[in-house]
Amino acid sequence: MKNVVVTGSQWGDEGKGKIVDWLSSEADIIVRFQGGHNAGHTLVIDDKVFKLHLLPSGIIRKNKISIIGNGVVIDPWALSNEIDELRSKGIEITENNLFISDTANLILPIHKEMDEIREDQAGKSKIGTTRRGIGPAYEDKVGRRGIRVGDLASESALNQKLEKILLHHNSIRKGLEKKIYNKDQIKKELLDIAPKILKYSMPIWKKLDEFKSKKILFEGAQGVLLDVDHGTYPFVTSSNTVSAAAAIGSGCGANRIDYVLGITKAYTTRVGEGPFPTELKDSIGAKIGDKGKEFGTTTSRKRRCGWLDGILVRQSVKISGINGIALTKLDVLDELEEIKMCVSYELKGKKIDYLPSSIEEQLNLKPIYKSFEGWKCSTKGIKKFNDLPDKAKIYIKDIEKFVETKISCISTSPERKDTILIEDPFNI
Ligand code: IMP
Questions:
Q1: Peptide linkage before 203 cis (omega within 30 of 0)
Q2: What gap in Å lies between CA 117 and CA 298, rounded to an integer?
Q3: Nearest atom of ligand 1 to the alpha carbon of 35
Q4: What are the angstrom distances between the C-alpha of 133 and each of 15, 49, 112, 406?
Q5: What ligand 1 atom has the least distance to the C-alpha of 39?
Q6: Which of 105, 158, 304, 325 is deepest in the core (most CB within 10 A)?
Q7: Three-state DSSP state, 282
Q8: Which of 428, 279, 423 is nearest to 363 (CA)?
Q9: Is 37 helix (H, G, I), strand (E, B) or coil?
Q10: Model confidence at 1: pLDDT above 90
């Protein structure tokens, strides 16, 4: 049996939705292990459109188990709304197909508000977060004052924990001259929502242990360059997005991971602020954005677009242990005369082949490109590698060589069937 982790190899939005949907049809169990409702993708199944933010993709399919692991931060109201919305579209969600870790931390209204206050006050140095409270909730988790799913079962536990968390937040809020939060009000809101969440709550590590003989898909959110340790810090999200987080964020051993599939867009995009060496602020960037429909699923923000950065993808391959790449949105490049891939950077007159850790240096990198002739014909819907135009094959083979891992599938349109499959991660 193979267990597969799907990880984004860029700044998120690599087109994971389609790949995860295909893989979840093969898996028995689908696990979210980090992030929160900052993530988002749209799945189209039998002409019905489903927007997912927090629930694993498997929830849309019959006879699959969906798990939200301890590494995820959960806004209980957002989760409850997402469940209700999917139910209204005929999706069955019960205690038999959804399990939530009792040790996952909750996102509270104070977290969302703190995210907004900080972003509004940061001026030019804002991160460009999704403003959903993700960062402040993770801060309280590592600050050991977080409130967890299991705490919803006990009013006395909530009382104690709310005192602790509000002591911290209200002190900061006082300093910022913001309204002081009242414990009883939050407690009431939490106790009201509790039954909707608690029915799915359990020790997930135990469940995963029971599922030893099943195929598990660990569904990563965001991408390696948004990882809090390995990304373009501080312009990152607040969780570890690399594949290793799948084990920690769900409660199984690292030896349960058999294959890491890295999703890579044939060009690069990023939402929010932060360094982006290959960004195109010209008409080519705009053309890619229009054709690729580059707007965020969660915040509808326009994504910044640029050439593929081979240096960054290669770094992600190493850090996240990527065994194979799913190359997405190749068709978006179909009409371009010339296509470029960054193969090195120049920094203060010197050539370097990795992303330096300092943000100042990251902002001053000058990309050095390899140029490819555009294939100037449609690749949309192609299902066999040999049917691709020769110039597209050259681009793909060069990426494969440069990033030092194989390309295991190529997506040639948003349709699930339009995929060139070279290696099926579940059946190697
Ligand atoms: P946060 O995760 O809301 O704190 O946002 C931190 C950074 O991560 C911002 O640049 C966001 O735009 C980015 N981000 C968070 N989630 C996603 C995602 O699912 N796709 C792409 N970018 C994301």
A1: no
A2: 19
A3: 2
A4: 24, 26, 4, 37
A5: 19
A6: 325
A7: coil
A8: 279
A9: coil
A10: no
pLDDT at site 386 = 96
| Ligand 1 center to 34 CA (angstroms) | 12
Interval 30-51 mean pLDDT: 88
For the stretch 188-225, pLDDT in tens is 999 999 999 999 999 999 999 999 999 999 999 999 99
Mean pLDDT of 311-315: 98
* H and E: helices and strands count for the chain: 12, 20
CB atoms inside a 10 Å sphere around CB 199: 12
Residue 279 carries which DSSP code? B
Indicate whether residue 13 lines ligand 1 (CB < 6 A): yes
Q: Is 130 in the pocket of ligand 1 (CB under 6 A)?
A: yes
Prediction pTM value:
0.96
Is the separation of the CB atoms in 88 and 238 below 8 Å? Answer: no
Q: How far apart are CA 309 and CA 399, in angstroms?
A: 10
Nearest Cα to Cα of residue 343 among 332, 333, 352: 352
Concatenating the DSSP letter of every residue in 355-375 gives --S-HHHHHT-EEEEEEEE--
